[in-house]
Amino acid sequence: MASDDAVRATNDDAAQCKRFAVEKGYWQDPFITLLTQRSQNKHAPEISRGYYARVMAMRTLLQKFIKMTDGNCQVVNLGAGFDTTYWLFKSNGIKAKSFVEMDFPTVTSKKCFFIRKGEALLNAIASDEEDIQISKSEIHGQDYHLVSANLRDIKEVERKLHDCHLDKSLPTVFIAECVLVYIDSDKTKVLLNWITENFTSALFLNYEQVNMQDKFGEVMIENLKQRDCSLPGVSACASLQAQKIRFTDTGWEAADGMEMTNIYKSLPHADVHRVEKLEFMDERELLDQLFSHYCIVWAWKDPNNIGLGSIDLT
Ligand SMILES: C[S@@+](CC[C@H](N)C(=O)[O-])C[C@H]1O[C@@H](n2cnc3c(N)ncnc32)[C@H](O)[C@@H]1O
Fold it and tell me: Ligand 1 center to residue 273 CA distance, Å?
């Protein structure tokens, strides 16, 4: 099993990479600076471009879902870390009935601390103290919930989502960005199954590694091992097909997905052109390798035909 401390530390890395990219001008996010300190390290342009593509694509899919449901929906971000999408969307008038973020208590208590300290973060959740309950590691507001749970423990996940008063008949999107790979595949199956058994209409957006059975994958696994961080869920990252099958095997109606190489090509060209001028990149090869080892897979369950199967990146 991966050391949970090492897994939790991956969130600090992700948040610092995002802050670095935002400060370079890849995309705008006034909230990330309230959640993480400036990185001591310089990050390679390939890394920032990778984050840019991931952030843009995940937000596009999420926005399409919220628009399709007219905001009558719920968002559950599993292993959310220091994600800022709730604040970014709300400040742009994009709202869901409920936005839930779940992570290990060590991560959620740090996030709680930053939210208390960062006025703009707290005010977005509630302008009145009576509308919000904050404990050391959890927050319950009108439309925002931050809860701690181990995703490997389905009973705990169930209990914590129950505390958020979710309506299981309302369309709900589950998001996992670089999370499931740290969880044993059997436990992920239990989680994915539980969602389809309990929610009437659901969408899952999963950003994760793919094509991990080659040399590049081997090196990535070895590097993480050196940091005491193993990838017990990597078997589902063998190919795009394997990524999709894990959803169709756990009660999801269908799944689709794209490698980041193709997703990057599908992003709005004018913005990609702007971003490509931000930093000089020595070798395009490393970026191509990175893009071919990450993907986004989306899976849906849509018995009422609200159109979840038509959500994509075109
Ligand atoms: C690489 S970080 C990604 C954070 C965020 N999703 C993002 O994209 O910026 C992985 C996150 O998953 C969380 N995580 C991994 N395994 C988990 C588990 N079993 N239970 C709860 N959270 C978990 C970690 O604590 C960490 O915050």
Answer: 31
